[in-house]
Structure formats: C-alpha cells, structure tokens
Description:
By secondary structure, the chain is of the alpha+beta class. It folds into two domains: 4-25 and 41-110 and 253-323, Alpha-Beta Plaits; 112-228, no CATH class. It has helices spanning 46-60, 88-93, 131-134, 177-184, 215-224, 289-297, 300-306; strands spanning 4-13, 43-44, 95-96, 102-103, 107-109, 112-121, 124-129, 149-152, 160-163, 166-173, 210-212, 227-234, 241-251, 257-265, 271-272, 275-276, 280-281, 284-285, 319-323. The strands form six sheets. Strands 1, 2, 5, 6, 7, 11, 14 and 19 form an eight-stranded mixed β-sheet that branches. Mean pLDDT is 90; it is low at 198-205.
Amino acid sequence: MTSYQAFTVTGMAIDPIHVGTGGARLGRVDLTIARDPVTRVPKVPGSSLAGVYRTYAAMALGKYPDCAGQGQPGASGQSGHCGKPDCPVCTVFGFARGQGGGFAGLAAFSDAHVLLFPIATREGSLWVTCPGALNLIGCEVTEPLENKLYRESNSDKPASLNLGWLLLPVEQFSKWGNIKDQLDNLNLPEYIWPKSQQPQQSQQSRKNRVGLLSDKLFSHVVNSNLEVRTSVSINPETGAAEEKALFSYEALPRATVLVWNVICKNPNHFQVGGNPISASINSTTISQPDHVFDVAKTAHPYLEHLGIGGMGTRGMGRLRVLHPPS
Length: 326
C-alpha cells in the first residue's frame, strides 16, 4: 500500500499573475513578485497555492466560509474549522482548533515554477524553457547549453532571433525525444505546442513555438520580460489621482505556463481525533491518494474565474489548469 502519490499539475496564466513579497522596496519596481532564492526566477509559493485551493474547494463542497481561512473559533467558540473526520476540506487541507488541537492535512503543495515563458520576437510569440524547468516534468537535458536559443531540428529557422531586446544565435537541438513526449501529455494549446496527431506527419511539417535556453540565460530573459504596470491611488473626494501615491508592480505575463505538484498522502495511515477518516467525495470514501487529489481538483474551475495572488481588481490572477483535465 503506497504511502503517498505526487500529482503534477500544469496551468496557464490567462491574466498576468502578481504574487507579491509582502512589501515595497527601492528599485525599478516598487512591488516585486516572489522569486526562487537560488535561480531568481519568479514563482508562486506553495503556501499561496494551498490557501486558494482550500478556499475554492470549500466553496465547491459547500463548506465555505467555516472550513476555509484560518479556522480559529470566535470568542463564543462558534464557527471556525469543523475538524471532523467526515469533512473533506478539513481532512484534506488540515485544520487548526486552538486548544482543541489540529491536523496537518492529507495534501501538500509545492511551489509553482515557470515551465514555459512567453517572449515577443520578430516572428511572433515564442515560449522558452530551460533544463531546470523541464526537469520538473521528468525531462533530463544533459547536454551543456551555451548562450544560444535552441530550437527543434527544422531547416526553416533563422540564424538569429530576438528575445525581447536580446538577440541570440539560433541552433538546432536534435534531442527533443523525451521532451516531446512529456509536452505532448500536458494538454498545451495548439498555438504553443501542436501535437503530432497524424502518424505519417513528418518532423519538418510539425511546427512548434517552444525554444530552449540554458538555466542562467533563462533566468535573465524571464526577469527582463516581466510585465510591469503603474497604478495610482484615487482621492475619493475629488476623483483625481492622489499626490505622491504613484506605484509600480510587476507580474508574470499572461500565457505563462506554470507547473506544480500536489502530494497526496494515504488516508488509511491517519486518524482525526482518534477516529479513522470517513470523508467522501462524489459518494466515494476518501481512502486512496487519488481520492485526496479529487478533493483538491474541485478548486481548479475556481482558479480560472477567481484567480490567485494580488491585484485581482486590476485584471490579474486568473489561472487555467491545463493538466490534468477536469
């Protein structure tokens, strides 16, 4: 009996996404977004994913608002997380009951990392990736990469191509076999990665808009091409801009493809308050890791409409889950 199972989820930003760092700083942008401390590539922290997953699952399963949020009971001891072994939200996402104890939950969330990043070129939009990002979906690129843009082995590629303001030589990269197999499974839009649906279709006729960069160059390109917006506070009395209230903020651009993992534990190995877990989803008792993921998946439609992160009232945050399909 397996103790846990990891489920890979990919999603595409249909709005710019701003998950801030909780404060402003002096620099090019006032409100920056969260970044990986090693690669400096922007990411969506797992804590942000866990919070919105829980809230949206509670909405979908009729447990909102009590089993969403921090869940501490009020002064009267009422409301807050129910903490019952038959609650799919509390058992999957955990709960806190103050002196009454708590439970860590059956689902854990990794950070969401950039898998494919859209760049404006003279040929149109191109989505770039790197060995570090591909490793998240099980692809290993062992060949050393230089400061070049690597494309699939087609003969119609130009000798050089601009990635935003940066002009790079283009080199053909022939070892796309495993990469193709994995990208084919992610349900990417056809304008990014068209699947080879016809067996007789030749590699030369199969077009895609994905390029490969080294890890170091990928970080540089991503950070140089983030969306930056400027806003100003409005004086409610005059309806005009407030003085000295101008600020700027950055975001991952729309059409960025993110990947993250949901690690689901085996419910049979845990108890809540000394009782076995008896929650159910779709009339099925949660007894396997894939049942835990079924509860988490109820949040996916809400991500597309209610979004994640900040600046939601400024047209940001919506995220469409591509894989696994609903």
